[in-house]
Automatic annotation (TrEMBL):
Listed GO MF terms: ATP binding; protein serine/threonine kinase activity
SMART domains assigned to the protein according to its UniProt record, in alphabetical order: S_TKc (SM00220)
Name the UniProt record assigns to this protein: Protein kinase domain-containing protein
Domain Protein kinase: 1-273
Pfam family, one: Pkinase
Top-rank taxon, per record: Bacteria
UniProt xrefs under PROSITE patterns: PROTEIN_KINASE_DOM
Cellular component terms per the entry's GO annotation: cytoplasm
Length: 274
């Protein structure tokens, strides 16, 4: 994707998102093919955003190393991550000064869960793809921690995950702060419990439920989302997907003890009903 001996010139005409409060910069670059996204972080603007970005870079490095190790045993092994590179900030021209040490370059990709009419076989295939890539991340030892619809991407018919800023290692206790998206948060997260495989499963269930029903839940306040997930959310699927209702109900069980424990359990139940 990028020749490390060359330099990236940021063009002001490129599609750019600039979050002043956090120092986060996001460029969509079409001046070469394939197109790519460039994610940068300015130092000294927002400590929390800077820490999250540095954490994400570290997760990408660890996942890439794990993938390289897998390739030695299985050359066809798939990666959890989109094609990407970590680029030294010294190779970026025309950007703001005082960037953190590296920028993240991601290949352009398509959304996996697009709001369009698809036949049942195709929809089921996409559900399984999302399930597999999340299961692979768990097998690598990580909980994503902030799953949402747009974090599932497709590139050359493969499914990948993006945005690992809130990713946590399985079994590692971290500070109980709200760092997930309330639209997809499991009930226990509203009670300051730690992120687990089960909180990822709940978020995936919320994504599936909205996509299969062709709806997007309307925006709510944080408190309203807490009531929604902890008390009011009910699982109702269109008749065409009635056979998936028991699976969605267990993925979205409010009581953590009644929810699936692992991705493999969902795979087995899917195999039984379709």
């Amino acid at each position: 994707m990028f020749n490390p001996k060359a330099y990236l010139q940021l063009n002001p005409a490129q599609n750019m998102s600039h979050h002043l409060a956090t120092g986060r910069l996001l460029y969509y670059c079409q001046d070469q093919q394939p197109a790519y996204w460039l994610k940068l972080q300015v130092k000294g603007v927002d400590v929390k955003s800077e820490t999250s970005f540095e954490h994400e870079l570290g997760v990408y490095q660890k996942l890439q190393l794990l993938h390289q190790q897998k390739l030695l045993m299985k050359p066809s092994a798939a990666s959890v991550c989109l094609t990407h590179q970590l680029i030294p900030s010294t190779h970026i021209l025309g950007g703001p000064e005082h960037l953190v040490s590296h920028a993240l370059m991601l290949a352009d990709s398509q959304a996996l869960f697009v709001p369009t009419e698809l036949n049942f076989a195709t929809q089921l295939h996409l559900l399984i793809q999302s399930l597999n890539v999340l299961g692979q991340l768990h097998d690598e030892g990580y909980v994503h921690g902030d799953l949402k619809t747009q974090h599932f991407r497709r590139q050359q018919q493969q499914c990948y995950l993006i945005d690992f800023e809130q990713c946590v290692e399985i079994g590692v206790q971290v500070e109980n702060t709200v760092t997930a998206t309330p639209r997809y948060m499991a009930p226990e997260l509203f009670h300051a419990k730690k992120k687990t495989i089960q909180t990822d499963i709940y978020a995936l269930g919320a994504i599936w439920l909205q996509w299969l029903n062709h709806v997007r839940w309307p925006s709510r306040s944080y408190i309203d989302w807490a009531y929604w997930h902890c008390q009011f959310l009910s699982v109702e699927l269109d008749r065409d997907f009635a056979m998936l209702q028991p699976i969605l109900m267990r993925m979205l069980a409010k009581n953590q003890s009644q929810r699936y424990q692992h991705i493999e359990e969902i795979r087995l139940d899917l195999a039984r009903v379709v």
